[in-house]
Queue: 4 jobs
Job 1
Amino acid sequence: MNIVVCIKQVPDSDKVTIDRETNRLNRAGVPSIINPFDENALEMALQLKDKHGGKVTVVSMGPPQAEEALRTALSHGADEAILISDRKFGGADTWATSYTISLAIKKLEEVDLILFGKQAIDGDTAQVGPGVAHFLDIPMLTYAKGVEVTGDTFKVDKVTEDGYEIWDIDKPAALTVVKEANELRMPSLKKKMAAKRAEIPCWGYDELNPIDENIGLAGSPTKVSKVFAPPVKLNKEILSGEPSEMITELIHKLKEQHVL
Amino acid sequence: MSTTKELWVYAEQRDGKLAGVVQELLSEGQILAEKAGFTLAAVLPSANGAELCQELYNFGAKKVYTIDDPKLANYQNDYYSRAVAQLINEMKPEIVLYGATTIGRSLAPTVAVMVNAGLTADCTELDFDVEAGNLLQTRPAFGGNIMATIICPDNRPQMSTVRSNVFKKTKLSDNEAGEQIEYPVDLSDVPERMRRLESVHEADTNSIDLNAAQFIVSGGRGVGKPENFKVIYDLAAELGAAVGASRATVDAGWISHHHQVGQTGKTVCPVIYVACGISGAIQHLAGMQSSDMIIAINKDPDAPIFDIADFGLIGDLHEIVPEFKKQIAAFKA
């Protein structure tokens, strides 16, 4: 079985601090990691491979340094990696990104399953998985927690707001994967060594041969018009002292503001 | 083609019941439509749309496009995206708003690529630039430390997803007038590529959905040990609140991951968020800082959670939280 896992390199939010003066992020020196939800997608792929054999290919679109995330994925057990990178792809929103990634996946042979993390922690859009599935014309389920192979279909356990659903979905399929699915295995020393030396092909404009108006800024319907710091809380009240007095005052304030 | 421009709200239903966020979107949609001079309409794919139209009129929809088909009884991405995309291509609305639910977040991105539209996820504020004709879609980015306003200048429709509780519901009356427009869509050529076999609603000890909760009481490392979560549950029960948790407590196995609020958990937007023994790591703040009101209870006066709190209570949560519960009970009585 051939499984493709799409991963994104993101800044490690745990290491990001806020500048109290400017209310901006201190991003200098913040390490990059594989988007945490993509780790769950990778582990889901590796478990399927353990059970049914086959090949796990990781794909990432980003600047050249995204290769680092791909090497990390190889050290955890992925078989092959492909970097999608080109200056012409820069400035892509989720529409253009979905289109570009779909071109890369079309070049791969006989893909049975494409996995994504449920969303990336930097943009939080959760839009690229569904977008890629549409461009590839394959069925897609979001928020998958578990998957089993059942002949020519997959049986998928999918999280909903108040429970779960079981779906039967035809091959080839795309899934976005939630955190509760699993935990990514540790990299092995041997695979770590191999990952360092692995050849990672980079597919750019010439390899993917895209339609120009579908890529980069031109292919992106959404534009950022303005970026600003979130408004500061004005009427903040900090209470200390006896618990019962603090709570009495708090409840009084909540009544005043009609939230109780 | 419609003669006046339209703003649509996707009328999400499950088992024939409208999602709460639909009423919120219609209420905000009314304000936007008025400002833009658009007609507010709802689009309702289901097995039998007529039953739900009145509720949509009551929250401001002037028109409801019903797409009825037995295949649309329950959400199925291929059928729903085809139905909605076909209607969009034909009627050409200016704006389409969706709830950022598990369904909305499957449907909207699929429709966006089908109809060549821009889509902005998880907006916390919407406005309309009358001069340029652009929807101004504001959302938190980078863990909520930066706000970004996104526009979609060249493509139509402009589409956004919005979380529950971001906008307030305003019911106009119980018998608003509106027009149902039945819109048949032929789904016979859409291949059946996935089938729902089972749908289970789980009853948790605290089964209030975090995403839709009006009140949330959350526990962090300061709770100390798993059994201490009882005080959090007790206060939540008294307030009719959902129970949340920080990543540290979930990773430590004190509480199930269903409860995790934060960047790798759920993003929530309740009316009141009570953070108990939560220091306020960026990854947690990202999931809750757009709450209307934040009450923080923490021993450490320097905890970052106090920076974003409306009310900060410095002290031991094990004393303060039970007291809070006691006084709420007294207040209700």
Job 2
Amino acid sequence: MKAVYKRELESYFNTMTGYVFIAIVSAFIGLYFVLYNLRMGHPYFAAALASTIAVFIFAVPVLTMKSFAEERKTKTDQMLLTYPVSVPSIVLGKFFAMMTVYLIPMLIGCLCPLVIRIVGTGSLVIDYSTILLYLLLGAFFISIGMFVSALTDSQVIAAVVTMAALLVIVIWDAITNYIPETPVASLIGFIVIFFLAAFIIYRTTRCWTAPALIAIFGLVASVACYFLAEDWFQGALGKLLAALSIYGTINNFITYYTFDVKGLLIIVCFIILFVYLTIQAVQRRRWN
Amino acid sequence: MIEVRNLVKQYGDHYAVNDISFTIEKGRIYGFLGPNGAGKTTTMNIMTGYIGLTSGQVIVNGHDIQEEPYEAKSCIGYLPEHPPVYGDMTPLEYVTFAAELKNIPAAEREESIKKAMELTKIVDVQDRLIKNLSKGYRQRVGFAQAILGFPEVIILDEPTVGLDPRQIHEMRELIRSLGKDHTVILSSHILSEVQDVCDHIIIIHKGKLIAQGTPEELENQMRGAAMELTLKSDDPEKVGAILSAIPGAKNVTCHPAKNGEVMAELEPESKTLDLREAVFGACAAAGCPLLMMKPSSISLESVFLELIADTGAEKEINAAGAEKPEEAEPEQSPEAPETEEKGGDTE
């Protein structure tokens, strides 16, 4: 893992990618910091950082797009996979290398609350907690980008798909607000989710039994619940999807200063899930 | 050393490798021979653990490549068809990375890096970016990575493609010297190369193993007994009549050449029949001076093409075994014309 990590980190600074990412992200953080905190006099750096979310949607895919897609294109994955290293350690090495690059503009951002403290009054606790939350959000974004990159050998496709996925995550709350609240809508929604899950499992494993069981179980359970507990189905789909709102968790903290432990756990689980899926995607390629 | 048992690799309905079994013994140089798309690269990719297999088993040094990949991969150095080099690194950085990845102990690391780079002669370019190097140098950087730490088995997929003739010569010398105390497996579609370097040849065609044996065994198997003659005569038909009259001769062809000479070819009825004396006697008796007599030489490549064309039909021949191929295409052992850069396998 250490060798992969070192090489990957070096490659970000042997090529322009690392510098471009750091330059763009720090420039925008600095810009918003000047506008919000220094010019408009907002006491919290957290607000400035929250405004830069759009930059992350575009910058993180640039960081992650090459992680696996390029290896596949240039066939260097052939070296990694025939060496005595395990796939998880390759994936983790790359993940931590990207996290390290991501960390650099965040460390630069750590100076901002201190500047506020010097010239006025702010809350170091809130500001630094926000920076930590943005590290977690970054890890989540990177895990998604890495997974998408492992699915394709085109960096452009990896970048575009990752951008779309990140955009959906950020506007998730706006989307879930429009989900109809009737029990029937929830029923259809749950059935669709189960069938989608079954389809994805079938596509990955090429095995019929497990997906068929999931689809049948989903269908039966959803319909049974619908008839037995119709009240519960009222708006259930919307509630479930809203609970998965990742950006909402971060936003809650920045706006209301509420620390949502459940939301944080969900983010951590998603990071682990996407790292795991990346490992599986790399492994699976060997079998096709 | 390596045991491949009933290896099958299926892509949908297409069999890239279809039930191949062979054993690789220690300290010899093996050559995989086959036309493009025969399954050489796929077989090597499976042996090195890069891709999975549909069924069968590959055992490297007692370790199953699927069950114990770490132990099995530790004994193998692999140079794939396209050298897996990172363009944004220098050869020195790259080989150092490879050494770290191979878990070569820190104490021996510097020494083995130096050795691998010296053997492959990339020391003069060690500080240039790999993306700026020529194909030949990239190939050598890939080769350095494969022999780094001197693993017990070195697998090379078309190691000489893209090299100039001098580099090809050096590469072959290097492979030969490695073969003294390592097991080397290389693939090629160039018969002369395999014959030149390898102790044992495995011929693969359409995913099947169609022949294997030492070069001598294969040569004997492929050799016919036809001969080419040049005689002094103005009348090809007369020469044809003389030669046809020899007992045991068949397929006599004659055509006039310049300076009042006739070129003729004939085959004995059976491979073991030696017609040389009879031909000499017949020509002398007819007063037709025999200027030249030699066994027919057709290029090794065309023999090989003949073999795969003939045995493509699901027939397995083992040179060591009793079954002999039907074709009696004669063959000597001159270097076949080298045809480099035929393009890679497409599997």
Job 3
Amino acid sequence: MTVAIPQTLREALAFSSANPNAQIIQGGTDLMVEINFNHRKPTDVIALRRVEEIRNYAYTADKSKVIVGAGLPYQKMEHGEIAELFPALAQAARTVGSPQIRAAGSIGGNLGTCSPAGDALPVLSALNAEVNLRTETGSRDISVHDFMIGVKRNDRKPGELIISVTLPIIQGWQGYAKVGVRNAMVISVASCCLVVDRKLGAISVALGAVGPTIIRCRETEQWLATQIDLKSISAVAPNLLKEFGERIANESKPIDDHRSTAAYRRHAVATLSRRLLVRANTK
Amino acid sequence: MMPNTEIYNLRVNGKNHEVRDAWVGESLLYVLRERLGLPGSKGACEQGECGSCTVIMDGQAVCSCLVMAATAIDAEIKTIEGLTPDGELTEVQDAFITEGGVQCGFCTPGLVVAIEHLLDNNQSPTEIEIKEAISGNICRCTGYGRIFEAVQTAVATRRAAR
């Protein structure tokens, strides 16, 4: 029975390589719930709360992307530079739990748990984020689409630590919307992130909590690009907006569970995606 | 840093506390209440949804039920018991009494800690900032109106004292 509290990334990687099956704990907001309810009984634990190197963000050398540390608390994304660069991420961060949860929770934890309802995950998907994982001896980058495998399943290998996500800075519009049973402190019933890249004339739409993992609506994205000019802000005709929502709903794969019905979730993603598209095309 | 989980130290309300024979998975809430004799922080949902267990850890309001106690050995923890010396009340606690912000009282310690944290970082919070700051604390009795009044009163008392 051990608890390791590494103070540096190097120390953390040494611990995880020496004990590849140790339980990693970041903010604890997912893991401790499982432990409190006796769903998990860890013996060896590596706590990352003191690893400052992953609790920061930095621009890439060419300034086209930002590397966000896996341990940066959501609280730090609600305002300031990150919020200006990635408004959708700020909006998603703002919907995570409560101030108490946002002081602890992080993208690394969302990716580690890999729940389809993880609030930041649709944003990472819509932005085509790259996830960086490291061991003591190696480092690899993987697209977030390939990293998320299924319900609470990801591609992290024993001994690897989730270090950061790299997000491209997009010229255009981005937004996030979520439906839950109340305003604060709620796990999503359905969520949606929409990003319009005005330079490329492309749109990306990602859905949360309506499938085994985050769903990218690639068919609808390609269809919409043939219907409107995404390089400029143009009003979307009502019939087009209606069809857009229907197509998004068709790409979702929701289930009935204790939080909602599949039918309501389908309705919710149609409405959320339409709202976001209207916002994207409103000055 | 690799604490021996059979004996480790927590720094709570400015004092060092020795924790013995603990299981690694115990939450800070459990250790505070059951091992350190600090039952002020309440346990209700144990999943970070009710805020009854709110404590200040390294200057942040957090849910102590979601902190693994053995990972908090190097943290400065402040609980409801540590806000004032025994027998004295903070402006916030006093305002809860005068405004009738307490009914069953179960959520009160968590709310008081969350509000103290807000006022320590923001001397004149707006209505929306107050609502946001207590959005993680659920009260099923008062309907929040009187709690909200208590915050306004505490803000005024603190301002007058400056």
Job 4
Amino acid sequence: MATLNVLIVDDEPGIRSGITRILRDFSVDFPFLNEEFDFNLIEVETGESAVEHLDAGEVDIVLLDNKLPGIDGIEVLEYINDKEFDCSVMMITSYASLDLAIKATNNGAYNFVPKPFTPTELKTSMEGITKNLYLRRMTKKMNTEGKQIRFQFLSVLSHELKSPLNAIEGYLNIIKERQLGDNVTDYEMMIDRSLERIKGMRSLIMDMLDLTRLESSAKKRDVQKVDLVEIMRLSKDTMSPLAIQKNIKINIDVQPDHIFYMADRQEIEIIFNNLVSNAVKYNKDNGEVSCVLREEGDRIRISVSDTGIGISEEDIPKLFQDFVRIKNEKTKTISGSGLGLSIMKKIAEEVYHGTVSVESQPDMGSTFTVTLPRTPTMGR
Amino acid sequence: MEQFKNMTALIADDDVDMTTQLSLQLQKMGFKVLIAESQKETEEIMEATKPDIAIFDLMMDNKDSGFILSYKMKKKYPDVPVIILSAVTSDTGMMFGVNTDEEKAWIKADCYLEKGLRTEQLEKEIFQLLNKEHN
């Protein structure tokens, strides 16, 4: 839990104490960012004393009224910009000065809350500004650490998480307003689509968790002797319900009967589950999936082939990038996060120093092959 | 409400749920709706048809499909109002708008709106862009 210092600048005592009351026991957390914030609230009456606090350098968020007795809010905002203080500003302003609020936003204020506001409105805005501040500081930190890519990842992630929410919210509003009349069955498609988007979002979150686990240095890896054949069979069982629906046969061909390997069980499960689930998801009805597991000299080879829609040559290089999903008529109805293969590749190559390759023919099927060195030299 | 009878709206979004919802809303307003699911498809439709208004998603085949389409639309039909409707906003780490001259210089859309906005807000913008009285 981190605490952010919030400077409340307003000459009306009622507004100040109101804000304090609302935010005193409020905290903001972002599960996927693994952070939680609460607020230390500082009340001041004038722009002048706001400047003093800012100069002391202990302010994270400023809730700023524009109409102040001495120097006004906009001037405080300009001061913050000039001095490049690392804080986020939210203007609190009455409806009458909407124009001004927009100007302020263009001048670097994160957003504005119109007065009067409800507790919920204030809390929602605080969530937004906190996330903005957090992401901005992360970016700064990452830029200095040369980790811009990671930030892009976060920003694409929030986009990917918002899209299903927007879709579901839209459908719910249509249903709430009975836009298609009172017949419940007319809304069935919208309910189905909402459920489908929720499913997609869940799979994204699950994949995210895999990735977080993988990238978090705090995670303790549990390396022990595991039987790859057993894990392969488990993956088959996991995917069986979907395979049965599409009447797909999953064959397992292993040699020898047990292949023991020093590894973190969860990581190996992620690799196998991704291979088998893709082979089923992107297969045709009545198709087949062949899983081959072989010990070949100092390497172990895992190949999973399907009789599915295949991948065109130009799409293959894109396959392993974060959030990239090959979009075409054939993949339109298949839900996925676009993270599975990139996670799998990270584990196989970065953690186990193995290789990942793919061969494919459109409309015929694809074969994904992972090889792992017999004596793994662990990446971390 | 059928103020926009005999008018055509072109909408482009690779999210089928967004196009479903948008086209429902626009049809209620009286529009005939043309739907495209990619930048390429949108360009094909633009070749053959001049819509009365266009609403583009930002990220489709390309990360800036919406910007490219706005540019092409304005080049071909300068008088067709264009709205970009995107989930890319300040809280996803990028902020676009058409408020400053600098932005207007390269973003050719008339208006940049955030997805998840209330239907009335979108309606209001459409009324404004097409110079209709909102009742």
